[in-house]
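User: tokens in, sequence out, please.
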């Protein structure tokens, strides 16, 4: 009965953890052979038979029948008179097969076997989990939010395995509630205290790459290849793509008709601006494309020092730099160059400024449009005018103007 209970328990384990039958049988056999070695000193003459179909276990002892007084190895041999007590028809030279009752090992030994089995099954479970997610690193997975903590989120996959989404791997605008299903890429599998920890990410460039692969069939089919992705999660991303088919426009294919393909990705990434550009081995052209949406007038490239000076018209400088300097930072990562921005007409370093459109998440569009109407299209142009002047020249209320000036001023104070 004890043996049957053991096997039934581990059949349940097998179904729950997807452990294959041969592995399960080998584990059970190893555990009981260890038990036999402890009791008899060796397991050579014992067969552990596991019947996974019926869910039972049988231990059989094999011994050769020898003449009385000729027993040299008690583990492998049995005296003729002893054999006849078991079965009168036995003859000298025959093999005697005898079933070993598990209860004969004693309660302590049986309990130890159960604990050892549980430990071995736990190790198998860990190995299965490590292999499953180790093979899926870089792939997107769906999981349900189970617990939200300050520094990380605990998720459960469809099989109930625990996954971790650290705060550092979340987009700043991410907000999740218990029971919500989220998408993330498998970043890595770690071992902590001998237990596997599956780390997910929504900030990794590979997450954006896989989202594009899902939305753009040409990328999935290999007709378009993603050469490089750089991201400032939740703010902006730049994706350099190349087509292996001259008939396919890689940028157009990624963006889709009226942005149909890219819009879903932008929503998933919490309105992250995504610039898709054509990859080229022409460095000057790549620099120009990487600074999108700004347009460069000219540049001075020093390939040895990995440095470039770019010259732009005054109204393009703030676009090139971007809010919080994100645009130029990503351009540098994409081109692997240090980029310095200058006004084209002065040849001097441009004082840091920000295009007013970059504040659209904090300032209503109609307010920005009203400020642009009087020529205030950058942050500094707003700060250069007093509240009284802005109130006189626009249709905005004083409180609104003060709030706008506070928002744009706070951005410069961060720098």
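Assistant: Sequence out:
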């Amino acid at each position: 009965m004890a043996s049957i209970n053991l096997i039934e328990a581990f059949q349940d384990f097998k179904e729950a953890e997807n452990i294959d039958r041969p592995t399960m049988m080998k584990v059970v056999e190893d555990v009981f052979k260890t038990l036999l070695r402890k009791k008899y000193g060796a397991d050579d003459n014992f067969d552990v038979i596991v019947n996974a179909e019926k869910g039972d276990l049988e231990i059989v002892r094999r011994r050769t029948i020898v003449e009385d007084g000729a027993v040299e190895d008690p583990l492998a041999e049995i005296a003729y008179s002893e054999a006849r007590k078991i079965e009168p028809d036995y003859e000298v030279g025959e093999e005697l097969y005898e079933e070993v009752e598990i209860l004969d090992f004693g309660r302590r030994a049986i309990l130890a076997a159960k604990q050892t089995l549980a430990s071995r099954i736990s190790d198998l479970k860990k190995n299965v989990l490590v292999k499953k997610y180790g093979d899926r690193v870089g792939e997107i997975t769906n999981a349900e939010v189970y617990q939200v903590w300050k520094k990380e989120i605990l998720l459960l996959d469809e099989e109930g395995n625990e996954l971790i989404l650290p705060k550092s791997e979340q987009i700043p605008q991410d907000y999740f509630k218990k029971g919500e299903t989220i998408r993330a890429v498998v970043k890595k599998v770690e071992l902590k205290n001998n237990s596997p920890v599956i780390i997910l990410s929504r900030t990794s460039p590979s997450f954006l790459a896989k989202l594009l692969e899902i939305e753009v069939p040409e990328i999935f089919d290999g007709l378009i290849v993603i050469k490089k992705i750089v991201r400032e999660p939740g703010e902006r991303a730049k994706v350099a793509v190349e087509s292996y088919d001259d008939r396919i426009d890689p940028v157009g294919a990624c963006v889709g008709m009226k942005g149909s393909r890219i819009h879903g990705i932008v929503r998933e990434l919490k309105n992250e601006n995504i610039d898709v550009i054509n990859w080229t081995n022409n460095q000057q052209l790549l620099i120009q494309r990487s600074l999108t949406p700004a347009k460069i007038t000219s540049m001075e490239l020093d390939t040895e020092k990995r440095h470039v000076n770019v010259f732009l018209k005054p109204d393009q400088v703030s676009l090139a730099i971007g809010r919080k300097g994100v645009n130029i930072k990503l351009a540098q990562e994409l081109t692997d160059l240090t980029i310095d921005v200058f006004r084209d007409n002065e040849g001097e370093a441009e004082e840091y400024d920000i295009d007013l459109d970059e504040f659209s998440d904090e300032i209503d569009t109609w307010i920005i449009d009203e400020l642009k109407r009087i020529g205030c299209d950058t942050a500094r142009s707003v700060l250069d005018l007093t509240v009284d002047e802005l109130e006189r020249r626009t249709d905005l209320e004083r409180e609104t103007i003060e709030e706008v000036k506070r928002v744009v001023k706070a951005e410069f104070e961060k720098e």
